[in-house]
Design a protein that fits this description.
About 80% of the residues lie in helices and about 0% in strands. With about 190 residues, it is mainly alpha-helical. It has a domain of about 90 residues.
């Protein structure tokens, strides 16, 4: 046993514990933010299906009725052509761009603080970005399908122009009738 030596080591772990505490707090905050983001995503999915869909459609109908007008009609009239043109010219690039923007915004909102503190984007943020982007690509493809489905479109340009022409003709006829009745002594 003469080859054995007993060495006492005293380590100062205060700084390591403090850094670990900061990391735990950052992790908790990031976890809460990711949780909120996921809950928001899940809530959006639930709103798109089931009972939430009825409420969403009803709310949209009320908003459309109060907001409606020429802009909505023109948007509906040209929206189908615009969606088809974008699909034909850009293909999946438009979908990919919209999905990338949405995913980047969601991830940057969640990881901005941690990235700023660490002076760099954590690898976990990049991984979550790729996962969210994949989900958003599928959502954007689905949205594009709805935009290009003629059965899901409102009045077209022909219907809008016919309605405008009818209204103008009626207004002109009523105006001429009022004018002639005002100058006609009989």
């Amino acid at each position: 046993m003469a080859d054995e030596v007993l060495v006492r080591v005293r380590l100062d772990t205060k700084q390591a514990k403090a850094e670990l505490d900061v990391l735990r707090k950052e992790g908790k905050k990031t976890g809460e933010e990711v949780g909120r983001g996921l809950r928001g995503t899940l809530s959006a999915g639930l709103r798109a299906t089931g009972a939430g869909a009825a409420f969403g459609v009803g709310l949209q109908a009320v908003q459309s009725a109060t907001r409606g007008g020429v802009g909505d009609i023109l948007g509906e009239s040209f929206g189908l052509w615009s969606a088809k043109l974008a699909d034909w010219t850009l293909g999946d690039l438009a979908v990919d761009a919209r999905a990338t923007v949405r995913a980047r915004e969601e991830v940057s909102q969640t990881f901005a603080y941690v990235s700023g503190v660490r002076d760099g984007i954590p690898p976990q943020a990049r991984s979550i970005f790729e996962q969210i982007k994949t989900v958003r690509i599928h959502q954007e493809k689905g949205l594009m399908m709805f935009q290009m489905d003629e059965a899901m479109r409102g009045p077209g340009l022909e219907e809008a122009s016919n309605k405008i022409a009818d209204r103008l003709a009626t207004a002109l006829k009523d105006g001429l009738r009022d004018f002639f009745s005002s100058i006609n002594p009989f």
